[in-house]
Amino acid sequence: MNVLKKLTLQNLRFNKKRTIVTIIGIILSGAMICGVATIAASFQDLLIQNTIVTDGNYHASFYNVAYGDSKYITNNVSTIHSILSKGLGYSSFQQSNNENKPYIYLYAYSETAFNNLPINLKEGRLPEKKGEILITEDIASSGGPAYKIGETISLAIGNRKGNGRFLYQDTPLTEAEEIDVIFNEEFIVTGIIYRPRNEYYSTPGFTAVSYLDEDLLDNEDIVNVSILVKNPKKIFEIVPKMAADAGDVSFSYNNELLKWMGITQNKAFNNMFNTISLIIITLVVIGSVAVIYNAFAISVSERKKQFGMLSSVGATSNQIRKMIFYEGAILGLIGIPIGIISGIIGIGITLKIVNKLLINSMFNHDIVLRLIVSPYVILTTVLFMTITIFMSVYIPAKRASKISPVEAIRLNTDIKIKGKKLRTSKLTRYLFGIEGELALKNLKRNRRRYRATVFSLFISIVLFVSFSSFMKYGFITSNMYYGGIHYDVMVTKNENTIEEKMEFYQNIAELNDVERYSILRRIHTSTKTPYSQLSSFVQKHIVDNESYSMNEDGSYNHEIYIVAVGEEEFQRFAAENQLDISVFKDTKEPKGILINKNIIAGRIEYNPMNIKTGVNLYLKDNYEDGINPPANIAINIGAVTDNIPLGVPYTFYMAANLLVSDEVFDSIKALLHEESKVMADNTNMLIQTNNSEDIIKEIKALNPNDTESSLSIRDITLMKAEMKRIMTSIAIFLYGFVSLITLIGVTNIFNTISTNVALRRREFAMLKSVGLTPRGFNKMINYESIFYGLKSLLYGLPVGALISMWMYNAFDNIFDFRFVLPWREMIICIFGVFIIVFMTMMHSSAKLKKENIIDALREENL
């Protein structure tokens, strides 16, 4: 080890406080970078795990592929593994206790399909050969003792037809339909599964899954193929080519899984994600560079005389540069590993806390937040921190190597200023006294140190305000998803006639714990709407962007949902909006209430239409059977409101809700085709209560023989509690992130100000030697603190606000909400800056007060 390296190590030991503070800055920066990347990877892994369980482990699916042509997909060089499945058809299920589900719909899965598609096994095992079958728990309970594991079930399987066309699971049960039986087969029940997500309560067939033996397939057999590809980033290029090779078959993507892998065709989502990532990375980089750069810049500044002496005895510029780089390397070797380890340990502890909060939440499939420690994250952190330290060291090292020995020893380059630039206004003397004037002149004398201190404060303010905005917008967007749910329990009766359903709902309404309720029915219609009757939001964001095509007559198709909420809720809603209910009971001249408010997917709130009271709407039933013309409905707008009745869901773009009385709803339903009448009879009861647990027990007790398929009860309070737990988890990460940013800022401020004060020992001693009293010294220090705080806030708060607006614009690509500045955090920031600056200045100057003036004038900085 040469002399200069020994001298560098000695200097680090003698200046322990500065060395420790610099190492802490490196540790915090490393921990933040590694921690942010680790938590992002861990959350991404959680979302991918959850999507695989709920939607399946595949990237794309191809439909109605001839088995002989499937090799163009399954044997493609891009395919990791393929999944074969087949819809075999319907079988009558006479034992069903649900009149709307008289069938079993049979799928066949290959071995890889069972392992990669969403099958949630309740008991038993998966099929392993042809002739074995899985049935849902609804089939088991409907069928009674005959359908236990190990028992045989006989199915007559065929196509479901109605009105001369094939009917599938997305078409509810109709009156004029039948099963065209193709083959009969017996199966052994090997397991019972929970109802899959793609089996809705309105679908007419219970789900059953048998084994698909690929060896028994002919080339002409039609199958569905799902694949996992080697390079998902190229999925949108690969899949269309595969589909063309296999005979121009239709295909779809597993968009949910791809989205969490960071692959999506949604430009708005990509813009939001990329912009937010860019802002966060930029702020993290600036914060890290600032804290480390200031530490080394101050170190070089206070050792300038030492470098001059070394140059005078023969040290070259290159050797001085190497000294400073060596110092950076030593501090980096200590700080970077500790920072990475600290970040991983901190995130690991956080994940354990969050996993406890996520128990029984939406991620309830035995999925936990795993600590994903990626070697790429560690390498990236090391590389980033190395570059940061190099950048932070390079400028001070270059500056130190250029100074001449005489100038360095005399220190006459530290302060270069003409006398007139030190002048202050008489107002300063009048307001702050001689101490304030001295404080201001001290700042003007050494602008480099003053700017370094203000820059440290500025960066800390910008970081705090920006990440506070990020946290606030995160909470706003998360809350928007559940902001419109004002009921606590949702009940859906899936069998019997509409009259029997209404009777059942009325029995529920008479329970003591029911505070308010609505009985929701809907009819899906459409109308041709002139451009002038579309709201300004729809015109600007949909029509003018050519996102919606215009009809030949210049109108636009607009969806209208005719909604009924039951007599009691309709009366309450009419009274709340000061409407005459009798006007809306006339079935000969029907009138409705336009609900002119919409929230899209919890993201965007807007008015869908520009229509006033008295306008007539001419609606068309959206269901067409190809034989009879669709029903036409004329209805008058009796009122327009932004208020929402209990339980009425928001619609999608180019759609609105039209509220009518039960009498008008029934008169309109009478005009519809049979299939539309079935859809109109699908009802939900939405209940407000303070005791959801007890009321659910009471509802179940009304008819204890109901199964999950015949009676669905959803406890929305549990959903809200789950969301609260998830929000708490998000809050832990966001507050933790802001706390880390705050720590970095405080470290930066403390390091800069304390070193700045320490370097001015001789200056303060001179002032004391010419008569500056301890009280005057305190006042001067306080005024300097005020000037530092005011200048940094003057720049920091507006820049922080601009970055907050930049973040808002990024969120606005997906979410639509009012721009909000984090005023509370900005006020905290203002007080925090002054408190931290005052405390640091007073702490740093406390030791100087006790020093002997002569000793301070003689002593050099180490």
From TrEMBL:
<feature type="transmembrane region" description="Helical">
    <location>
        <begin position="450"/>
        <end position="471"/>
    </location>
</feature>
<feature type="domain" description="ABC3 transporter permease C-terminal">
    <location>
        <begin position="279"/>
        <end position="405"/>
    </location>
</feature>
<feature type="transmembrane region" description="Helical">
    <location>
        <begin position="276"/>
        <end position="296"/>
    </location>
</feature>
<keyword id="KW-1133">Transmembrane helix</keyword>
<comment type="similarity">
    <text>Belongs to the ABC-4 integral membrane protein family.</text>
</comment>
<feature type="transmembrane region" description="Helical">
    <location>
        <begin position="820"/>
        <end position="841"/>
    </location>
</feature>
<feature type="transmembrane region" description="Helical">
    <location>
        <begin position="329"/>
        <end position="351"/>
    </location>
</feature>
<keyword id="KW-0812">Transmembrane</keyword>
<dbReference type="Pfam" id="PF02687">
    <property type="entry name" value="FtsX"/>
</dbReference>
<feature type="transmembrane region" description="Helical">
    <location>
        <begin position="20"/>
        <end position="43"/>
    </location>
</feature>
<feature type="transmembrane region" description="Helical">
    <location>
        <begin position="371"/>
        <end position="395"/>
    </location>
</feature>
<dbReference type="InterPro" id="IPR003838">
    <property type="entry name" value="ABC3_permease_C"/>
</dbReference>
<dbReference type="InterPro" id="IPR050250">
    <property type="entry name" value="Macrolide_Exporter_MacB"/>
</dbReference>
<keyword id="KW-0472">Membrane</keyword>
<dbReference type="GO" id="GO:0005886">
    <property type="term" value="C:plasma membrane"/>
</dbReference>
<feature type="transmembrane region" description="Helical">
    <location>
        <begin position="732"/>
        <end position="759"/>
    </location>
</feature>
<dbReference type="GO" id="GO:0022857">
    <property type="term" value="F:transmembrane transporter activity"/>
</dbReference>
<keyword id="KW-1003">Cell membrane</keyword>
<protein>
    <submittedName>
        <fullName>Putative ABC transport system permease protein</fullName>
    </submittedName>
</protein>
<feature type="domain" description="ABC3 transporter permease C-terminal">
    <location>
        <begin position="737"/>
        <end position="853"/>
    </location>
</feature>
<feature type="transmembrane region" description="Helical">
    <location>
        <begin position="785"/>
        <end position="808"/>
    </location>
</feature>
